[in-house]
Write a sequence for this structure.
């Protein structure tokens, strides 16, 4: 018989939230009480199982000299160059067997040690108490101080405090924390992100003087009719509340009403105050606002809201979810500068400092509980913890820790029970508790399809047609649901190139009062900085189960550079509408804000001739109230000299603000005046046939194949019809999508391997005509393609005629021509949409002007390479000694690798520049959509296989 000594680890699989922690309370960043940050270098030992080591490491005097050193806050798998394990990414599948509450024996466990002294000015240990606070530990922790076990806890993205004053010493304190990657709590934290164990938020020691603040609740409502705010601060410890700017000095629990300026996301007015008890002074930042459900709408201060929001996971490409204040501030500034007004904290409460920033800069917040059990969908939600009474205390603990921590933030207007956790009694208990604790906010949960427990009807990724039907109140549902407002808590899945169709969603939001906006999925690509791949995603660390680059679906790249999707969203949700048709010399200005007038903005006009600005000036616009419109007279138009002309009107900040400087652009619109004259080339030159070449104007062609060889001194390679693009994440779609996934069908039908059959080379009196059939192997469908070349001696015109043959059941990825030129070609100039990429359903932000860039600058660095970089509505482009004019306008793309190489790449370093620049001139492109987790392109953005004719004129740059 053998015996094995084990460490007590029963708590790891206990469904309870833990033991030993103090009741949750309001979080505040500072006070006059002493505090000590325990962030910094900690000693770490990682074991393969939860019980591999005993508790001796927690005893004072333990020798950890051979342990590794890691930074706290941090995740141990993102430190040590892989020595402590690797990250794991899954969307919703649990990376361990589903057998709640049990977790695998293989359970990476990190023992953390921190030895610290109290500062010299720390109060005497006999005076008051001391609290040890952990703001975030994944996923389960047990804590010792100076050898004494003080408790254990679960709830990774929630604060936990412990009373430790009786255990502290002036010096040589030993704080030991054992962190387990997997625990019963992991079943509640299946949130479509990297699984990253560690102490990833702050660890702080807080002195609690006698009579110090415990919990407090700032109630600050606003009466929009009277223009008055009512303040009451409830406090567990009696004290006084002062707000000097409002001449308020009252006892806690006392109500006072005074004239105030209200808090909104557009005008985030905060009044500085102070809560003073016998032992502590806590700064307050009070924002007065009232949130109600009224007339079937979410209203703040009497006005319905339109959310222009985003879902935000916490992420840094090197630190994971261990964010510092400046990274959080960078997020908020980027959001404000791109016209966002709301954040859903998917799918857990953020670092509390982020909410301070939302209060300060102005963002509406849906604060979401640290709860998701999505993996249970694979077993039809059987054994789902939210419908199992044993787990209800843990659910209520999570709800309470969120609400109590964040209840004093005016930016938080809605509590969310969690995400994708099915339905069950536990969610109802959470909703009831929250409604009872805080009647000043509303409750959200997308999974409550009948709105039994919630105050709004919420969906994710509903198709445009259904959203329109909901807006028209034709969706049916329960009696309660039919009377509630609707939001898209997730839409516009921003994975790779896209999302497409968000302008169409916005038009619906603005057309129907019931539709109160939505939240793009999501803010940032969760790429991990990696020497091999640039940025790594699921599977790059050898995970046996993963969901690939589905973790890279943000409006900003991992390094926080805005993607074209964010630029598009900024345009779509701009706070000022600027429209006109150029016929009467006016422009219509609409204030699309919910509250503020236009006094914060200055307006500027400019006039373009062939894309170049020839005059500009300021425009006088009335200070329209929210929702109002006015027709504003433009100056007299300058002489356009027969060229394409138009106005550009911009709205910019009139003064510096907290989030952007004076002159920052918030909105723009363009009004066409005169259309461009189309390029014309008289077919006056005749082709000349030589032994091996045919000469036509400035060009030479292969006499046998009719293939273009040179234009002037520029060598041209492989000019021919092109219908293929490197499929985007949205082209390929998701396996659970109900609509057709065309990226897969394009491959099935061989559009990536089209064959080009030469049928005839015809030399006429004034033209060279090449007839071909372009078709995939194994299928009867094809494209009859005729290239007709003409010249006036100096310029060369190509007219391409395409006729589909057979039964085309799929749209085309693209339709145009592709050719190669020498790799020395670098700078590109064009007159058309820019400065960034634009596709049929993603080009709202494509501004008509003259632009220039290098070939490398034309590329969009999606973490997983795919179709990118097309400039829309191009009139002409110049590259490598060629000027190309289009009839009609075209899309322009240039890259240093082929489409086939782009499609084969899995990470950016896979793309190696070659000796050729490949140019695409596209008559049409298929739309983008957001089918990676949403609808594909709307039908009007399909590129159908239909007869088409388009022309390009080649000449030397002027």
């Amino acid at each position: 018989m053998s015996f094995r000594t084990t460490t007590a680890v029963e708590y790891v699989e206990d469904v309870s939230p833990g033991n030993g922690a103090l009741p949750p309370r309001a979080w505040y960043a500072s006070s006059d009480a002493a505090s000590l940050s325990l962030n910094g270098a900690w000693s770490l030992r990682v074991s393969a199982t939860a019980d591999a080591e005993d508790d001796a490491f927690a005893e004072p005097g333990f020798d950890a000299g051979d342990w590794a050193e890691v930074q706290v806050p941090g995740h141990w798998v993102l430190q040590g160059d892989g020595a402590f394990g690797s990250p794991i990414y899954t969307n919703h599948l649990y990376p361990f067997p589903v057998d709640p509450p049990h977790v695998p024996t293989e359970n990476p466990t990190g023992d953390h040690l921190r030895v610290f002294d109290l500062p010299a000015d720390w109060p005497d240990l006999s005076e008051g108490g001391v609290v040890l606070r952990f703001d975030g530990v994944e996923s389960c922790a047990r804590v010792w101080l100076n050898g004494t076990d003080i408790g254990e806890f679960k709830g990774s993205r929630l604060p936990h405090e412990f009373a430790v004053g009786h255990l502290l010493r002036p010096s040589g304190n030993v704080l030991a924390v054992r962190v387990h990657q997997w625990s019963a709590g992991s079943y509640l934290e299946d949130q479509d992100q990297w699984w990253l164990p560690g102490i990833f938020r702050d660890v702080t020691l807080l002195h609690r003087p006698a009579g110090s603040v415990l919990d407090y609740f700032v109630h600050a409502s606003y009466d929009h009719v009277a223009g008055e705010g009512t303040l009451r601060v409830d406090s567990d410890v009696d004290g006084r509340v002062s707000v000097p700017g409002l001449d308020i000095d009252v006892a806690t629990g006392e109500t006072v009403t005074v004239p105030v300026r209200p808090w909104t996301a557009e005008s985030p007015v905060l009044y500085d105050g102070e809560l003073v008890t016998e032992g502590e002074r806590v700064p307050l930042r009070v924002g007065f606002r009232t949130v109600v459900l009224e007339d079937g709408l979410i209203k703040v201060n009497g006005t319905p809201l339109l959310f222009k929001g985003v879902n935000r996971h916490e992420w840094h490409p090197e630190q994971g979810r261990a964010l510092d204040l400046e990274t959080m501030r960078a997020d908020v500034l980027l959001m404000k500068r791109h016209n966002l007004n709301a954040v859903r904290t998917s799918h857990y409460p953020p670092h509390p400092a982020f909410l301070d920033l939302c209060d300060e800069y102005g963002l509406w917040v849906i604060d979401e509980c640290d709860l998701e059990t999505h993996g249970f969908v694979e077993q039809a939600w059987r054994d789902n913890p939210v419908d199992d009474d044993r787990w209800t205390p843990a659910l209520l603990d999570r709800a309470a820790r969120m609400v109590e921590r964040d209840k004093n933030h005016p930016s938080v207007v809605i509590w969310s029970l969690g995400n994708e956790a099915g339905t069950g009694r536990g969610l109802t208990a959470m909703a009831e508790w929250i409604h009872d604790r805080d009647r000043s906010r509303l409750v959200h949960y997308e999974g409550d399809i009948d709105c039994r427990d919630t105050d709004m009807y919420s969906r994710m990724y509903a198709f445009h047609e259904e959203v329109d039907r909901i807006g028209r109140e034709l969706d049916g549902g329960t009696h309660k649901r039919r009377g509630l407002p609707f939001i898209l808590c997730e839409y516009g899945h921003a994975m790779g190139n896209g999302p497409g169709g968000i302008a169409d969603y916005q038009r619906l939001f603005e057309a129907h009062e019931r539709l109160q906006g939505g939240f793009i999925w999501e803010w940032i690509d969760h790429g991990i900085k990696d020497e091999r791949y640039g940025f790594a995603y699921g599977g790059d660390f050898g995970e046996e189960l993963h969901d690939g680059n589905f973790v890279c679906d943000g409006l900003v790249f991992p390094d926080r550079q805005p993607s074209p999707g964010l630029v598009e969203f900024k345009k779509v949700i701009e706070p000022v509408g600027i429209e006109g048709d150029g016929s009467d010399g006016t422009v219509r200005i609409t204030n699309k804000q919910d509250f503020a007038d236009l006094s914060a903005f200055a307006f500027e006009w400019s006039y373009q001739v062939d894309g170049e600005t020839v005059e500009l000036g300021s425009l006088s616009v009335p200070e329209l109230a929210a929702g109002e419109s006015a027709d504003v007279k433009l100056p007299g138009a300058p002489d356009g000299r027969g060229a394409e002309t138009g106005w550009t009107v911009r709205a910019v900040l009139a003064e510096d603000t907290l989030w952007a400087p004076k002159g920052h652009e918030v909105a723009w619109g363009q009004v066409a005046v005169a259309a461009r004259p189309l390029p014309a080339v008289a077919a006056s030159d005749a082709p000349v046939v030589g032994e091996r070449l045919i000469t036509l104007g400035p060009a030479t062609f292969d006499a046998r194949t009719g293939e273009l060889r040179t234009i002037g001194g520029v060598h041209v390679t492989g000019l021919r019809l092109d219908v293929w693009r490197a499929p985007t994440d949205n082209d390929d779609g998701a396996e659970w999508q109900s609509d057709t996934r065309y990226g897969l069908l394009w491959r099935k039908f061989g559009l990536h391997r089209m064959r080009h059959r030469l049928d005839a080379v015809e030399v006429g009196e004034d033209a060279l005509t090449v007839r071909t059939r372009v078709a995939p192997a194994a299928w009867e469908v094809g494209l009859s393609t005729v290239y007709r070349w003409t010249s006036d001696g100096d310029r060369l015109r190509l007219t391409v005629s395409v006729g589909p043959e057979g039964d085309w059941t799929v749209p085309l990825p693209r339709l145009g021509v592709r050719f190669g030129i020498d790799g020395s070609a670098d700078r590109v100039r064009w007159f058309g949409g820019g400065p960034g990429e634009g596709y049929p359903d993603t080009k709202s932000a494509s501004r008509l002007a003259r632009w220039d860039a290098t070939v490398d600058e034309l590329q969009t660095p999606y973490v997983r390479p795919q179709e990118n970089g097309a400039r829309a509505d191009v009139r002409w482009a110049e590259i490598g000694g060629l000027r190309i004019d289009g009839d009609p306008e075209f899309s322009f793309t240039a890259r240093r690798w082929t489409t086939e190489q782009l499609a084969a790449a899995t990470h950016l370093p896979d793309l190696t520049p070659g000796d050729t620049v490949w140019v695409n001139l596209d008559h049409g492109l298929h739309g983008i959509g957001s089918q990676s987790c949403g609808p594909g392109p709307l039908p009007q953005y399909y590129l159908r296989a239909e007869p088409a004719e388009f022309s390009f004129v080649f000449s030397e740059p002027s």
